[in-house]
């Protein structure tokens, strides 16, 4: 069910003709307007690929990547801004994300979102493309809901907290306070403080240093492609190597000349590998 009518214009950076929609999602004892965009919904016989953004991401921050990947793969796409991001309902200023926020997003929010838009994940298991925090959420969702996910592509996901991650997040905090980072994020988020401090505060919470999801991954039954750049400033190859240790069917893609965002640094290589992976495993 949509609580707001679709907008007539595509968000900046997305392909023209993709209306922005809002799902009315009941979750965590609250109701939220969740922004989302559909790519090629007319391809009803093809898999649905759901894009889960990074810790500072949104629908618009993906630019044209979801459209390009869905066109190359010949599939449908769904791009959403999680609660607190993009044009979705903002996080209340006094509220901080709990340490298990990614578990909650994976186990509770995603099922509530799919229900709100009327997508039956048993009859039509979606594929998930997750980046960074979104990759972790995708992994957790597949582990918690086996049989309801067709496959995973996770780019720069986090399994555990590394010193390099915390150092980069602290650097981002300094930049948000002292540079024009806030105004840049305001291009993509209705409430940039909601997006930034929600992400930054929980990652720099001392209790978050013990966050680790690796042991949960053995429950994943679907195909997995895990992608990491050799120059990732937010994590090392230990992250996707950890996926391979727990998920025997996982395939790894390690990219040269690539930082934390493979879809920006190596889009052609990433799309080529993702399309080949989906074609091998989709039914």
From TrEMBL:
Where are the membrane-spanning stretches? none
Determine the domain of life of the protein's source.
Answer: Bacteria
What the entry lists under InterPro entries is as follows: AB_hydrolase_1 (IPR000073), AB_hydrolase_fold (IPR029058)
Q: Where is the AB hydrolase-1 domain?
A: 49-273
The record ties this protein, via Gene3D superfamilies, to: alpha/beta hydrolase
Q: What is the protein name stated in its UniProt record? A: Pimeloyl-ACP methyl ester carboxylesterase
């Amino acid at each position: 069910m949509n609580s707001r009518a679709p907008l007539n214009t595509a968000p900046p950076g997305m392909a023209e003709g993709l209306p922005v929609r809002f799902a009315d999602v009941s979750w965590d004892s609250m109701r939220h307007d969740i922004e989302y965009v559909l790519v090629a919904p007319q391809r009803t016989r093809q898999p649905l690929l759901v894009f889960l953004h990074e810790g500072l991401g949104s629908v618009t921050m993906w630019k044209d990547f979801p459209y390009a990947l869905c066109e190359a793969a010949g599939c449908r796409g769904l791009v959403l801004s999680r609660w607190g991001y993009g044009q979705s309902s903002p996080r209340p200023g006094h509220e901080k994300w709990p340490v298990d926020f990614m578990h909650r997003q994976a186990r509770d929010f995603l099922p509530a979102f799919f229900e709100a838009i009327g997508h039956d994940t048993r009859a039509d298991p979606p594929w998930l493309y997750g980046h960074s925090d979104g990759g972790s959420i995708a992994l957790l969702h597949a582990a918690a809901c086996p049989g309801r996910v067709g496959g995973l592509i996770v780019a720069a996901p986090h399994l555990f907290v590394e010193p390099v991650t915390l150092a980069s997040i602290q650097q981002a905090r300094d930049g948000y306070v002292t540079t024009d980072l806030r105004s840049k994020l305001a291009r993509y988020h209705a409430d940039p403080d909601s997006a930034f401090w929600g992400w930054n505060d929980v990652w720099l919470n001392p209790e978050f240093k013990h966050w680790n999801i690796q042991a949960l991954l053995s429950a994943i039954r679907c195909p997995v492609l895990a992608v990491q750049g050799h120059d990732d400033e937010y994590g090392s190859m230990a992250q996707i190597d950890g996926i391979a240790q727990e998920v025997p069917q996982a395939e790894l893609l390690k990219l040269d000349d690539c930082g934390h965002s493979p879809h920006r640094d190596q889009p052609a290589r990433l799309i080529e590998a993702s399309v080949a992976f989906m074609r091998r495993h989709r039914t």
